[in-house]
Design a protein that fits this description.
The chain is elongated and about 85 Å long. It has 427 residues and is of the alpha+beta class. It folds into 3 domains: 261 residues, FAD/NAD(P)-binding domain (3-Layer(bba) Sandwich), CATH 3.50.50; 77 residues, Elongation Factor Tu (Ef-tu), domain 3 (Beta Barrel); 57 residues, Orthogonal Bundle (Helicase, Ruva Protein, domain 3). The chain is built from 13 helices and 19 strands. The protein has a 6-stranded antiparallel barrel with strand order 12-15-14-13-16-17. Strands 6-2-1-10-19 form a 5-stranded parallel sheet, covered by helices on one side. A 3-stranded antiparallel sheet has the order 3-5-4. A hairpin with a 3-residue loop joins strand 14 and strand 15.
């Protein structure tokens, strides 16, 4: 990177360290607007978290109107109105293509680089930073320096870095190996900000029981899932793929379901329809055909065409049918119990997996303490926030990265445009 900053009106320090792109967007936009920008990055290299998003392909955004992005944000969507209106998914697509990253749109309007490599997205962002001479310092921020209610810089182990404005974009707690340590929460809290307890969102679910462990490693495609709360209300439903693990459930539909679980609320149940393409009448006919072909066999040996091998013992136990019972003696009532087990395979949920296993973090800096039109702190002049550090999160599909781009851009531009009354100007 070019270490020589452009001359500008404001000296801005952008603090990174695990953020999935908002840090680079904030730094680049501020520099483009004419500010002198220094980016502090504790990892030694930029975009480590960005490289692993979307299974290494990086789901850049979702090709939808910006208003639709708000519909995919369960936590504080109104706060993002100005940021997304100012930098829509269409704007994000144009930005990356302008900086050399060709894009394509796939199922669910998910946008990926044509290369299918996250590196292409990171390369575009680094070209952006080079174009506007952002200065990169491999330092870890320890504290935001504040005097008389105004930012004065950032303290590091190597010494202070003075600044007129600071953009804090350190990410959340997810993927700690990439540098997301939650340090930004501590820095924000130390200067008066309220931190909503960070929890995992888009995270696997821990089973209350041991059935999932018996099917560990089994992936199911084309299944229907419902997430039901303690009142029996379905709060989420979807169709797709899930995975049984040693502790519970994972996979795309489960990660999405986790984002719909209210903070602090327990007692959820995942209900899986193992045969969603078959209504009960059709499924019953299918079971009868299988039974007819295996009428002299034990029940446990009659389901191999209907269910995966590792699932058969669990389904049999739940049906209440003796596994050694001859198929030709199974009653209509017993067959009904089997059908109901297949159409509604329930997994009671104890809790979400730890936040360290999550794709994104829910919780963070309380948004009522941040100006939604500028991303500036309402408590400390010249301090701005962006991305996952804020108490906003979205569902899967490119929405979380779109939030990162939009809030990073708004924070960077707002910091560059910030006007202060200099001491020598005071009357």
């Amino acid at each position: 990177m070019n270490m020589t900053p452009l001359s500008g009106s404001n000296k801005i320090v952008v603090v990174g360290g695990g953020a999935a792109g908002e840090v680079m967007m904030a730094a680049g936009m501020a520099a483009q607007a004419g500010a002198q920008v220094t980016l502090l990055e504790q990892n030694g290299r930029l975009g480590k978290k960005l490289l692993i998003t979307g299974k290494g392909r990086c789901n850049v955004t979702n090709d939808c109107p910006w208003q639709d992005v708000l519909q995919s944000v369960p936590t504080n969507p109104r706060f993002l109105y100005s940021a997304l209106a100012g930098f829509s998914p269409a704007d994000a697509k144009k930005f990356f293509e302008d900086y050399g990253c060709a894009l394509k749109t796939e199922r669910g309007n998910r946008v990926f680089p044509v290369s299918d490599r996250s590196q292409s997205v990171l390369d575009a962002l680094e070209r952006f930073l080079r174009a506007y001479h952002v200065r990169i310092l491999p330092r870890k921020a320890a504290e935001i320096a504040v005097s008389d209610g105004r930012v004065t810089g950032v303290k590091t182990a190597e010494g202070p870095v003075p600044a007129d404005c600071v953009v804090l974009a350190t990410g959340g707690l997810s993927y700690p190996a990439t540098g997301s340590t939650g340090s930004g929460y501590a820095m924000a809290q130390a200067i008066g900000h309220t931190i909503i307890e960070p929890t995992g969102s888009l995270v696997p679910l821990v089973e209350k029981g041991h059935d999932c462990a018996k099917m560990q490693g089994l992936a199911l495609k084309n299944i229907a899932v419902k997430l039901v709360n303690t009142k029996g209300k379905t709060v989420y439903e979807d169709f797709g793929e899930l995975l049984f693990t040693h502790f519970g459930l994972s996979g795309p539909v489960i990660l999405s379901a986790s984002a719909h679980m209210a903070r602090g609320e327990a007692g959820y149940t995942v209900r899986i329809d193992l045969k969603p393409a078959l209504d009960e009448k059709t499924l019953d006919a299918r079971i009868l055909r299988d039974f007819s072909a295996a009428q002299n066999r034990d029940f446990e040996n009659s389901l191999s065409a209907l269910l995966p091998r590792s699932m058969i013992p669990v389904v049999i136990a739940r049906s209440g049918i003796d596994p050694m019972q001859k198929v030709n003696s199974i009653t209509k009532q017993q067959r009904r119990a089997l059908l109901e087990t297949i159409k509604c395979f329930s997994v009671p949920i104890a809790c979400k997996a730890p936040v360290e296993d999550a794709i994104v973090t829910s919780g963070g800096v309380k948004v009522s303490e941040v100006n939604a039109k500028t991303m500036e702190s309402k408590l400390v002049q010249g301090l701005y926030f962006a991305g996952e550090l804020l108490d906003v999160d979205a569902y899967t599909g490119g929405f979380n990265l779109q939030i990162a781009w939009a809030t990073g851009r708004l924070a960077g531009l707002s910091a560059a445009a910030k006007e202060f009354q200099k001491p020598e100007d005071a009357t």
